[in-house]
Amino acid sequence: MKKFIRSIFSAVDQFLKSRFILSVREAFIALLPYFVSSAVAILLLNTVTAFGWYQSDSGFVSRVKQGAELILALFPVMVSFSLGFFLSKNYGTSGIVGGLLALLCFAIHGHFVTEFDGNFIVNDQGASAYSIVIPILSSLQLKALLKWSPKFPIWLGSVSPFLKEKLLLLLPFSLVFFSFFLWLPLLDLFGSYIAAGLQSLMKDSSVVELTAQRMLLSHAFWFVGVHGDNTYNLLFDSRFLTEDLLPGISAKTFYDTFVLIGGTGCFVGLVLAAMLLPKRSHERHIAFLSIPFSVFNFCEIILYGLPIFLNPILMIPFFLTPICNFVVAYWVLEAGWIPFNDIEMSWMTPTLVNGWIVGNSWHAVALQGFLILVNTAIYYPFLSWHHNRVNYQQSLEQLSEQLALTDAFNMQQESKYIARQSEQGHINKEIREVITELSRGTLMLYYQPQVYSTTTTCCGFEALLRLKTKDGKVVGPYFLDVLGAHHQSVLIDLWVIDTAAKDLERFQQLGLQPCISINLHPDSLLKDDIVNRIIRRFKRYPKQLIIEVVESSYLSDRVNFIHHIEMLREHFIETALDDFGSGYSSLSMLADLPVSLVKLDKQFLDRCDSSSGCTLYSNVVKLLHDQGHRLVAEGVESHKQYEYVKSLGIEKIQGWYFEKALPLNEAIDFINRDSGSIVRE
Fold first, then answer.
1. How do residues 343-363 score in pLDDT, each as one tens digit?
2. Across the strands, what pairs with 164?
3. Are 505 and 476 in contact (CB under 8 A)?
4. Measuring CA to CA, which of 3, 85, 191, 566 is 20 to 30 A from 445?
5. What tens digit of pLDDT does each residue of 8-49 get?
6. Considering only CA atoms, which of 354, 340, 282, 347 is closest in space to residue 311?
7. What long-range pairs does 251-254 form, CB within 8 A, spacing at least 24?
């Protein structure tokens, strides 16, 4: 039995982390801003209608009403494009082409735009199911056809890779589009058979049975991402909702007041359960975001943001909570323990408020409160399990979004993540904690000045990475070793490259042209795409960028490393050897490298308190000068050290004696100082 349970858990875990589910979730999470605006639009529209403001001659009221209706009408369009984009992107196809294909197929084949009396009209509710089915089918077909379609290597040999990718998609794109002329009639026929079968089962049902069936079917539709209430109303007769479920209370009043507490899925209980999770959990954040909308029974924020849909972990409480509410409330009301009135209200009437109106006493409110506690107890164990299973995934997504990586790089990281998840069944705790801490804070670049030894005027800066934690404390890059060990340093390096380029633009706007140095992980200069990115980003700032690398970079791939250094030098980007003497120092190795700038490690200078240390330091300086290298002395912290390195003819000096690392604005003030010397006695 235990083995069977473990196999089920393993299957659920693999399903949650599959490329398909990851893509569908990502597509709906990307639509969260649209869901929020949709909820606000519905709220405004219903408010305007409820108070009769739509009859006003105010142009503002008219625009609000039109805008709200348009937002709702375009909802299936947004869903279809987002699904097509992320499914195609994560399956290795062009995201934008996949999105456009899904949108085109949906608009033409999904009954979204129909012709009536010579005019085109929008059928947004009737097309909601197709907005999910069509993008899934189109993306999977595009992937399969692209795999088997001819590549025409000779014809496209001289075409750029970007254009070649799009040309190779022409045939699969067309085949997928025209295939829906076959697919859709079959889907329509299949759907009509299912609807007819369900209708025959409901034909002789009582109002209680019909209400329960509507509850289960609408939740089933919502679970697969389709608007459950609208879909049910299109497929089945909902007139029974106006009939009495119990003498004196209609099915609709009972359902809205005592079953859907917080909207579909009884999400008031889920919000409270999320409050019991750790403060920085993804589930808790989404619950907080949804509170203003859950008050008015909007379910989309949690449904798609958490998400609930297609989530086997949360499927059980999603169905169990309304069933529990239905059974308990029906039993209590039938027993006559709570008085009630059949009062017609908007489905947006907040929980507890509608209970007071229907019951006209605290008894109905107490019943709602009891049901909320029961719903919370049902949701919590499943929500806690969900948090433990997907917490690392959420942390990685938050980090990628915060660092504002490009779509191409995001796709690469997601692919690596999916591959790693298929190879390992557990999450490394160390990297999870580091990524979570990074996602909570803010990365920053601080700039430590470098000065000429002879004039002590500022000649540039070294950009040093800092993390501003959630509580406002600025700390050093303690996380770099952990990220490097787990092959995630490229996330940081790309952010450093982009941020340094933006800061150089800020300097340039102020009429300043300092040279700045940035530190990259050894692996970064071995990657063609990273080197090309550096060249593109800094082509506007010739001779203003220095890439600092450590000696270990040389050891892994000598030929490629030297080739990339020479590429950078051709584009006026210099490379400096950082921390010389702290690792695998070798003067013969240094003679092979095309670098002209060497930074002497602080450890060298700290040993100069002894005669042997001074001898070693001075001899290394002489040898490096004899080889034609320019030098930077790091770690100068006293006047004595400054005078010593100056006497050796070292060209540049860096250290706390002159200034610590500064935020950008303070670095700008530093370089603008109108003093000829900054030496302190």
1. 777 667 778 888 788 877 788
2. none
3. no
4. 566
5. 656 666 666 667 777 777 777 777 777 777 666 666 666 666
6. 282
7. 251/207, 251/208, 251/210, 251/211, 253/342, 253/343, 253/344, 253/345, 253/358, 254/211, 254/329, 254/330, 254/333
**571: number of Cβ within 10 Å:** 14
547 membership: H or E segment, kind and range: strand 545-549
Q: Tokens for 310, please give them.
A: 């297609």
Q: What is the pTM of this model?
A: 0.50
The whole-angstrom separation of Cα 629 and Cα 252 is 83
Q: Helix, strand or coil for residue 450?
A: strand
Q: Work out the angle at residue 496's Cα, subtended by the Cα atoms of residues 494 and 502, and round it to the nearest 5 degrees.
A: 105
Q: d(Cα 492, Cα 388) in Å, to the nearest integer?
A: 26
Both tokens assigned to 210: 């019909």
Residue that is written with structure tokens 């995201």 in the block: 95
What CA–CA distance (Å, rounded) separates 336 from 392? 50
Q: Tell me the sheet residues that pair with 445.
A: 465
Residue 497 has, within 13 A of its CA and on its CB side, a CA count of: 26
376: its two tokens: 């919370």
Q: Is 218 helix (H, G, I), strand (E, B) or coil?
A: helix
152 Cβ neighbours under 8 A, 6+ residues apart: 167, 168
DSSP 54: G
At 614, the amino acid letter reads C
* β-pair type (249-250, 244-246): antiparallel
93: nearest Cα among 138, 26, 28, 132? 138
For the record, the structure tokens of 108 come out as 């033409």
* Beta partners for residue 421, in sequence order: none
Q: Which residues share a beta bridge with 325?
A: none
Structure tokens at 416: 């690596």
CB atoms within 10 A of CB 448: 21
